[in-house]
Design brief:
Belongs to the helicase family. PriA subfamily. Helix 1 packs across helix 2, helix 23 runs parallel beside helix 24 and helix 26 packs antiparallel against helix 27. It is built from 27 helices and 36 strands. The chain has 7 domains: 115 residues, PriA, 3(prime) DNA-binding domain (GIY-YIG endonuclease), CATH 3.40.1440.60; 64 residues; 86 residues, no CATH class; 176 residues, Rossmann fold (3-Layer(aba) Sandwich); 182 residues, 3-Layer(aba) Sandwich (Rossmann fold), CATH 3.40.50.300; 54 residues, no CATH class; 95 residues, Ribosomal protein S10 (Alpha-Beta Plaits). It has 843 residues and is α/β, with parallel strands linked by helices. The strands form 9 sheets. It has a 7-stranded parallel beta sheet, sandwiched between helices. The protein is 34% helix and 21% strand.
């Protein structure tokens, strides 16, 4: 890639003007960069990292990122001109471009796919982007002057709900209109969005102010007070307003007014009195658009002092950071790792650096953000997929401007434009949620974070109570540093763990639905003591499938080779792979019988049964179905923290890092389905899940209890969980992996062949496996084999697993060979429509 040239076009005479070209990254799955010619008048505007508008193909107009500026025209095609420069300053940094290129190379995808994943949609403009009037825009009140073109757009938007960029171009009859769009955005007249279904609704706060003429004419206020003497509730509201907003000391305070919710929620004031004053024109209500993030430090306070063992851990980490760039903090659940993180973040900020705090699940951000906000105030930014595109763009720009120096986010936060990163914290580093599966790039945020830290010369702290085997292996062989915390914070101790033999309990007829008598009795006991319970079931929905009692018919997805799961609340059958759904039938379509029964159980069934068995309990569910809205996580967690909920039923979301002081019982409903999953990581993941969810119990001094229901209590992994013996698990797993050639001793690349026709998928996979074997060796290529779920979204699947030990060959050259072979197969006429996907380091 060419570097940006350093010169000042203003110093050149007109006759000496240099013709520049720009290599751009299009947000498309293209294997190479595309080169455009820079118009002379844009020579001093086009620079690495800015967005430019270009035409690609016959009609498509879109924005892209400039990756290099040079004087070399392309050899194979005539370069088109850049149409427009959007940004005055780069929105993508050089460090980001480096990490984007590394992701593309390491995870065997294109740089365009990385850019498409990295940039918020609000920063990606195309001919199909849409604009709408800003919800709070009032042309009569706006103080901004508008050009003729801007007036034309605003008039059109008053007649239409939205306009595409193509429609704007046709309306104005000009090609270069994107600066006009940008100007209208800056004037808060319009907003951009990608899909009508995802229209951006800004966060609006309703405020109250006293009608201005009462401020400027004191006699009117005196008359008002006299009139309200007979209406004491309304008088109380006016007096409260004047106490909170001393307008006679500073008239300008009235313009800011007072938050309406603060007035209405005041226990001494009447909401109806407030509304009456608004109707009479005494108080005026107005809307204010506020940032999703705080703009002041009013919540800020000092964190609690570290305990002795936390100080020891922090000092050990700092000491190891002088020798190593990566350190693992292996602390048991409840040991206070978060407080250590906060202290290290403070030290990083004192040194002038930025900090990235990664979490595996959005659910975790709800609690962590509150804690961090109290310490870091308006320096904290939050970044995850439940935020709107405009809110994510706000964080992106906030980092560029220096507004945010600490960012808490899930895996996509590794794409943000840091310029002075000094510390990355990867909490719950073992979590598979850090891995992106679909679509490409199929990256692991933990691994990208390590490379990101390398580019920034930053330090990385990995944290977990149950580290991944690969991570612990790197610590044991001295590659990374290791700090251990074996003591829970304060007076809390590890919970007692009890195994319940469901097979024996069934024979004794002690099972009530899917609850053993012991677990149900323990829940009742805890509820009587006003204590809380968490129940874990690693499957959502009401039942994995339904079946006909008479003919054994089972409904299948029409697109995938899986049965449809039953969801009782919506009364429908759903595919958890492609989203296909249909109404629950009243009778069997095969034989007409009405004897349809549910088989198995998910979180919805657990919730339903518990409400029936314990009608006085307040039960809430946290899974993918109940957390689709942006604030759903926060609301569920807030209700549980406030003891509005007695029992929280959930999937893996409830196992990770949540801190509830009143939880004294955790129940694992069906442990066997996790232990017996066909994967070499099954026992490691089972241990991690069970220990993590167990760690939610007894965190604030109360002795916790964990009850695990299993049909096989003699399974060896249970003893390791009871003893909290991670080292025993690690030693067993590392020996097995060395023996059978699994990570960390090898790198695995899974190649999936997909086609609409089963025979073509199989034939292509066989030929691809042979070519790979010829180039890499027979011992390093396994398959092809048909996966357990062999059809997804109407595509038949075949898988090939490639194992590359670190001494076998250069990983880079092996990936290059694999990519070439995939291209060779994909271009064959007999395999038309074939899709081949390479997944590096699959989880």
């Amino acid at each position: 890639m060419n570097n940006q040239l350093e010169f000042n076009p203003a110093e050149l005479l007109p006759a000496e003007r240099i013709t520049l070209f720009a290599d751009v990254i299009l947000p498309l799955p293209l294997p190479k960069l595309y080169t455009y010619r820079v118009p002379f008048e844009m020579n001093d505007e086009v620079m690495v990292g800015v967005r430019v508008i270009v035409q690609f193909g016959a009609k498509k107009v879109l924005s892209c990122i400039v990756a290099a500026v040079h004087q070399n025209p392309p050899h194979n095609y005539q370069a088109k001109y850049i149409l427009e420069v959007i940004d005055e300053k780069p929105v993508v940094t050089n460090e980001q471009l480096r990490i984007f290129n590394w992701i593309a190379e390491y995870y065997m995808c294109t740089i365009g796919e990385v850019i498409n994943a990295a940039l918020p949609s609000a920063l990606k403009l195309s001919s199909e982007s849409r604009i709408q009037l800003h919800p709070q825009f009032n042309p009569e009140e706006s103080t901004y002057p508008f050009s003729a073109h801007e007036e034309k757009i605003l008039f059109a938007l008053q007649q239409n709900a939205a306009l595409t960029f193509t429609e704007v171009g046709n309306l104005l009859q000009i090609t270069h209109f994107h600066k006009i769009i940008k100007s209208l955005i800056q004037k808060q007249a319009i907003i951009i969005f990608e899909e009508i279904a995802e229209k951006y609704t800004p966060k609006i706060v309703k405020r109250l102010k006293l009608s201005p003429h009462f401020i400027h004419e004191a006699e009117l206020l005196e008359e008002l007070m006299a009139q309200l003497a007979t209406k004491p509730k309304q008088l109380d509201v006016v007096m409260y307003y004047l106490q909170q907003v001393p307008v006679y000391q500073n008239v300008h305070l009235n313009e800011k007014g007072l938050d309406k919710s603060a007035v209405i929620n005041s226990p001494h004031l009447s909401p109806s009195a407030v509304n009456s004053l608004i109707r009479k024109g005494i108080l005026e209500q107005f809307d204010v658009i506020v940032s999703r993030f705080p703009t002041d430090d009013s919540q800020k306070n000092m964190p609690s002092a570290l305990s002795g063992h936390q100080v020891t851990a922090r000092d050990e980490i700092l000491s190891l950071f002088t020798q190593k760039d990566i350190v693992l903090l292996h602390g048991i659940t409840g040991s206070g790792k978060t407080e250590v993180y906060i202290d290290l973040i403070k030290k990083a900020l004192e040194g002038g650096g930025q900090v990235l705090y990664l979490l595996p699940e959005i659910a975790l951000t709800a609690q962590i953000v509150i804690r961090l906000m109290k310490v870091f105030g308006n320096r904290l930014g939050v970044y995850h997929s439940k935020f709107s595109d405009n809110e994510r763009a706000e964080v992106w720009n906030g980092i560029l401007s220096g507004r945010f120096s600490v960012v808490v986010g899930v895996r996509s936060a590794i794409f943000l434009p840091f310029h002075n990163l000094s510390l990355i914290i990867v909490d719950e580093e073992h979590e598979s949620s850090y891995k992106q599966y679909e679509p490409s790039p199929r990256y692991n945020a933990r691994e990208v974070a390590l490379m990101l830290a390398t580019y920034h010369r930053a330090k990385t702290l990995l944290g977990s109570a149950t580290p991944s085997v690969e991570t612990y292996y790197n610590c044991r062989n001295g590659k990374w540093g290791l700090v251990t915390m074996n003591q829970r914070f304060g007076e809390a101790g590890l919970p007692d763990i009890e195994l319940i033999d469901t097979r024996r309990e069934s024979l004794k007829k002690n099972m009530f639905s899917h609850f053993s008598q012991q677990l149900l009795g323990a829940i009742e006991e805890k509820l009587k003591k006003q204590e809380q319970v968490i129940l874990f079931q690693n499957r959502r929905g009401y039942a994995p499938y339904i079946s006909c009692h008479d003919c054994a018919w089972i409904p299948k997805c029409q697109n995938c080779a899986v049965s449809l799961s039953y969801h009782k609340f919506s009364n429908e059958l759903r595919c958890h792979y492609c989203g296909y759904h249909e109404k629950m039938p009243s009778d069997c379509p095969a034989c007409g019988s009405t004897g349809l029964k549910t088989v198995g159980f998910g979180t919805e069934k657990i919730e339903d049964d518990l409400k029936y068995l314990l009608p006085d309990a307040n039960v809430q569910r946290m899974d993918l179905d109940t957390t689709k809205s942006k604030n759903a996580y926060s609301q569920i967690i807030s209700d549980f923290e406030a003891n509005k909920t007695n029992v929280l039923v959930g999937t893996q979301m409830v196992t990770k890092g949540l801190d509830f002081e009143n939880v004294s019982l955790v129940g694992i409903i069906n442990a066997d389905s996790i232990i017996n999953y066909p994967d070499f990581r099954a026992h490691e993941r089972a241990y991690q899940l069970f220990v993590q969810v167990s760690g939610r119990a007894g965190r604030k001094g109360k002795k916790g209890t964990v009850m695990i229901q299993t049909a096989n209590p003699n399974q060896p992994i249970f003893q390791k969980i009871i003893d909290n013996d991670y080292l025993a698990l690690y030693e067993h797993e590392i020996n097995e992996r060395h023996k059978y050639f699994f990570p960390p001793f090898v790198r695995v690349i899974r190649v999936t062949v997909k086609h609409l026709e089963e025979k073509i998928s199989q034939a292509a996979a066989v030929e691809l496996a042979k070519l790979l074997t010829d180039g890499l060796g027979q011992n390093h290529v396994l398959g092809p084999e048909v996966p357990y779920i062999f059809k997804i979204r109407n595509l038949f699947l075949n898988e090939i697993h490639i194992k590359l030990d670190r001494e076998h060959t250069s990983l880079k050259s092996a990936k290059l060979f694999i990519s070439e072979v995939i291209s060779q197969i994909s271009l064959k006429k007999e395999y038309k429509g074939l899709r081949v996907v390479a997944d590096v380091d699959p989880m």
